[in-house]
Amino acid sequence: MTDADKLDFAKIMEVMCLAYNRESSQELMRLYFADLKRFSIEQIAYACEKYRRSPAEFFPRVGKLIELIEGNSDTKAVDAWIGVIELIGQHDAESDPESPKYFDSRHAPRFDDARTRRALTSIGGWTVLCQTPVKDHQWLQKRFIEAYTVTQQVDEQKQIGRDEASKLVEYLGYQK
């Protein structure tokens, strides 16, 4: 979001306050705006609407809205696993080894997502995955998802630490 979205954001938050019988305040608006700033106003509107339609009885915490936008760690881990498996499915024994879509144990793809790379490494890497019979992929999937989820939790804790340090520096008036 940008400062131009503040009015729309305030309207969305007013509806949330009304729906959950919560008193609106400038402090609340500032806090939520700062914590949700990295998302578009459309994403925030979507998350708030989805939350309102849920059986939730209390005003949402910022973390819950972020989870509704990004998905929770289990969904992200499963999506990452599906992406890895789809790449294996692109492997065709008849294809040209020079083709960019040719993957096997000797031609590992490069994953942009660091969590996927780390989770894949934790189960033995691309070679192990390609050489494991499909009937045994369920065990690798379980280990991959666990590793991905732990990696995500560690990354989130690091980000929270950086964000809190940044807020403290800003609060104390120090220059970055």
Describe it.
With 176 residues, the protein is mainly alpha-helical. It has two domains: 3-71; 73-156, no CATH class. Helices cover 65% and strands 0% of the residues. It has eight helices and no strands. Helix 3 (41-52) packs across helix 4, helix 5 (73-89) packs across helix 8 (137-172) and helix 6 crosses helix 8. It is elongated, with a radius of gyration of 21 Å. The two termini are 22 Å apart.
Notable characteristics:
mainly alpha
* Rg for CA atoms: 21 Å
Please tally the helical runs, counting DSSP H or I stretches of 4 or more residues: 8
How many E-type strands? 0
End-to-end separation: 22 Å
* Integer average pLDDT: 83
Helix/sheet category:
mainly alpha
Largest sheet: none
Strand content: under 5%
Shape: elongated
Poorly predicted parts: 92-96, 98-103
Would you kindly provide a brief summary of this structure?
With 176 residues, the protein is mainly alpha-helical. Helices cover 65% and strands 0% of the residues.
Describe the protein's topology.
Blueprint: H1 6-19, H2 26-36, H3 41-52, H4 62-70, H5 73-89, H6 114-122, H7 125-131, H8 137-172
Helix pairs in contact: 1-3, 3-4, 5-8, 6-8
